[in-house]
Amino acid sequence: MLRAVMRDLFLLLLIATGGALRVPTRILRRPRPVSATAAVLDGTAWQNMPVCNDPRWETVRLDDDDDSQRELFASAGEAIRCGGAVLVVPELVTPAECAALVEICTGCADEVRDWRAAAGHEDPAGQIRLPTIAAWERMAAASANTASAGNFALGAMPPEADALCEQILRRAIAFVDAELPSVAATCFGTPTIAELHENGGLEFSGREPAINVYGEGGGFLAHKDHQALTVLIPLTAPDEFAGGGTGFWTAEQRGHRVEGPSVVLRPEAGSAMLFGGKVTHAGLEITSGRRVVFVASFSPLGGRQQRAEEAAQSRDLYGDLT
Predict the structure, then answer these.
(1) Whole-prediction pTM value?
(2) How many angstroms separate the CA atoms of 282 and 293, rounded?
(3) What whole-number distance in Å separates Cα of residue 235 and Cα of residue 98?
(4) Which positions ≥6 away from 22 have C-beta within 8 Å?
(5) Most buried residue, 90, 167, 202, 234, by most Cβ within 10 Å?
(6) Residue 177 lies in a domain
(7) Residue 134 lies in a domain
(8) Domains contained in the chain, number
């Protein structure tokens, strides 16, 4: 009886709407090649994604088709903490600073690559990481290899690049504190991140801050940073390389081993991408040219063991916590 009544009501609605009755549909994600699934945003194209935008930054949602979660990201801090978005800040680094770091670090990367090849060491194809001096010293101390801590030929960036990277990091932190204060409160539990940085209250991923230099065949495996905040800044323009970019996966996707990223960002040189430690992301493979990026992932001091345990349980672990 009830089914008959519901059928008659449906037929009446269908007649009243002239056959145009619309049934809500949920589109399911299916595993496809990266090129078919990813929204690739080159240069300033990402500015066309109108979500929580401000003249000083853009918010790129990673789950833009899921309106049910929209209210969770009322603040930048919540968006980063939940891993639902990437904030893009244009022109945080000047063209002159980008050019200086690219020139210094590509030359240094070539020297490191030649030295390691001569020593018989194997490196990921086409990728060299140059940590800051402080990051290199932490890494050397952790491996009880303190004698090599000051040997820049083994991997640390030169002092002039190191000083410039510190300026850029301080500028990024100052921007977040001034323009996105909810990030400090929500992700760091403090009024300002700058105060933590000045007082030695930040803990960085083991080989960061750093400059990554990618050549042909170079990329960075998909992973989660398991830190409160990551600052990722491309120093080369999108037209200086083919392929590449940073791929991002939503929390709802089944993993980078099953399907490609939902979004690939290739912003202009000097633009900062800000995101949280729950976001699976990767440096996609370069097919030609060169791509250079600055990266720093960090959290409030303490809690390293908990983050390491979370990372050990993650399918996207790369291993940068130590």
Answers:
(1) 0.78
(2) 13
(3) 5
(4) none
(5) 234
(6) yes
(7) yes
(8) 1
